[in-house]
From TrEMBL:
InterPro entries: Bromodomain (IPR001487), Bromodomain-like_sf (IPR036427), PWWP_BS69 (IPR047268), PWWP_dom (IPR000313), SAMD1-like_WH (IPR048589), Zinc_finger_PHD-type_CS (IPR019786), ZMY11 (IPR047269), ZMYND11_CC (IPR057054). The gene is ZMYND11. It holds the Pfam family Bromodomain. This is Zinc finger MYND domain-containing protein 11. Keywords: Bromodomain, Chromatin regulator, DNA-binding, Isopeptide bond, Metal-binding, Nucleus, Phosphoprotein, Repressor, Ubl conjugation, Zinc, Zinc-finger.
Amino acid sequence: MARLTKRRQADTKAIQHLWAAIEIIRNQKQIANIDRITKYMSRVHGMHPKETTRQLSLAVKDGLIVETLTVGCKGSKAGIEQEGYWLPGDEIAYSMQPFSRTATPNKDWETENHDWYCFECHLPGEVLICDLCFRVYHSKCLSDEYRLRDSSSHWQCPVCRSIKKKNTNKQEMSTYLRFIVSRMKERAIDLNKKGKDNKHPMYRRLVHSAVDVPAIQEKVNEGKYRSYEEFKADAQLLLHNTVIFYGADSEQADIARMLYKDTCHELDELQLCKNCFYLSNARPDNWFCYPCIPNHELVWAKMKGFGFWPAKVMQKEDNQVDVRFFGHHHQRAWIPSENIQDITVNVHRLHVKRSMGWKKACDELELHQRFLREGRFWKSKNEDRGEEEAESSISSTSNEQLKVTQEPRTKKGRRNQSVEPKKEEPEPETEAVSSSQEIPTMPQPIEKVSVSTQTKKLSASSPRMLHRSTQTTSDGVCQSMCHDKYTKIFNDFKDRMKSDHKRETERVVREALEKCYNCEEEAMYHCCWNTSYCSIKCQQEHWHAEHKRTCRRKR
């Protein structure tokens, strides 16, 4: 039976600040009482004492901080009960001491079956519990179609409803997902490098279901995903856990958001055309020339500032057309529909300047049309080798992945042959063409350009050229570009390591400094075994207040 319940109420970032305050105070052999905690939170995080008290009270109710009452056994506090706060788990050893008792019993968080925070906004509060999985949602975070209609009925979250959609070919799905995971691994390099990860002792107190990119990759390799929606849900869970543990404004949360956004984009591109998605990642020879099922509409597309260029139509939306150009880099762009002409339009009516890039694009278009006439579609026997293909596609080595059907021979000469179905000889190029119509080898999109899911191929050549020269040129340029790319990545990684080491060293030195017993500032004067002061004023105040009765310094 579905119901609304308050799982937790305290803010996750405030809880981690309170944990740090209690740990630092305890390391100084002091009782972590409300006064010391509020002073620390005000000084370090600028939190008002009232807000600190409120968050501390909520954390105790949530079982994330343990409150204890201890009877003093010596000094001025002998026989007086003092409140103290402990991290979950630390109070067990303390409760074994005499004259101590736990004011609030600790909750058994390991037996929880559901998450504590909304899966959509990642915040605590009154949530709706799913009957099939661990996820919970605020009612306000759900769209109308997913909201609870009747409290007596069972309720399923949006993720569980979407996962019910089955995909036809599980092996094919695993092949596609391997490409996406390979891209996720690139984004996730910096995700857990800032000092805290899933090995942190308090991590599982906040994160109910831990997941990371290696775990997702393992599930893909073992074929455990039943649908693309289930894979997307794990990527969203990674974002959910990162925001909860590191904070919504943290650098890790920004990386996780970008990773999830890229994953959703890859899945959208996969649903748009599976053939294009696979071929652009596997990168066999002439991959852009193979027809898709169903075939893409062929058009002449004109971007602002350039002439018409042959392209495939990927999708249409309102008055815009998403096209992918033939040619060197196969770029994507959104083009207004008035700048689109059917491929059957005579090329001489388009008034284009026939540059080398334009001619290569037309050669590729001609090969694509020949494949269409011959009914030659891409057929791979090694699609289950998705991991090797995914890794090779990331490094842009495009000539060693798959076995390709024999490339058709093309006749030499007739370089200016028209690309229309009717093989007409072109007229002499005597018409005057303005310089603004000249198209470079790689047209730069000026209008709204969609981010292509396919990795750019670093070197491409005309289908009319011999395969040996194509492979030699491609490999040489590829190796040079890869060397520059990975040199830059290594230098960036080394700089980040140096800065992280410097910050960590400063933090350790800062925490190792002794604190003033009276005001918790950096201490300069040592009195006895666990008592130091920042100034003579603090020493005198604490001496007359209580320390002269407990000081252990030999005099």
